[in-house]
Sequence to fold (177 residues):
Amino acid sequence: MLEGKTVNLRVLEKEDLVLFAEWTNKPEFFDEYMSLAQLSISDIEKLLENPYEMKYFVIEKKDGRKIGLIFHFYVLHPSGRQLEIGYALVPSERGKGYCTEAIRIMVDYLFLSKDTPRVQACTDTRNVASQKALEKAGFKREGVARKDFFTRGRWTDDYLYSILREEWKEPKILTRT
Ligand SMILES: CC(C)(COP(=O)(O)OP(=O)(O)OC[C@H]1O[C@@H](n2cnc3c(N)ncnc32)[C@H](O)[C@@H]1OP(=O)(O)O)[C@@H](O)C(=O)NCCC(=O)NCCS
Fold:
């Protein structure tokens, strides 16, 4: 369990898969900026055992209520791989700073546990909430990837964001112990 001030991140367990499917199969969970996905429990199980080493965490409020997901994975290139994060919150819990804190916790965790020079994130150029959350968590915008994803019937442009280890410097929420 990774403990923050207003939210905790808990590794997704088998018993969370029903809720995972319930959330991800609702178009409003990923909103208009992410692909529509209809996934069975067995599709999700396969997703969790892939070459991208995708790891999901449930975002929980301090009273244990589950409000969203944050995940990390590797983007694979012939010349190497980049560590990337993604996230989504249930609509009723957005705009309260929870995602920003979840991103900060995840960045602490990744720089403390993985020998990586950077953590990156990709967001639709129209997704202002996601851009703000990344910027508040210390990410910098690197540029635009044009027609990067096919989402909800059209090709969309994405901003690539990153935070470097030297910009992070030290844990903001987690400790080294
Ligand atoms: C992106 C998302 C995770 C952000 O979560 P969140 O908990 O609402 O984020 P935060 O509250 O920490 O920060 C969001 C910021 O954007 C602002 N914001 C929210 N919606 C906005 C909008 N439509 N236009 C401008 N600003 C907006 C909030 O006011 C807040 O800024 P502030 O702290 O300066 O007030 C959430 O909107 C979501 O789940 N969206 C659907 C899935 C998604 O897009 N995932 C990201 C894919 S890259």
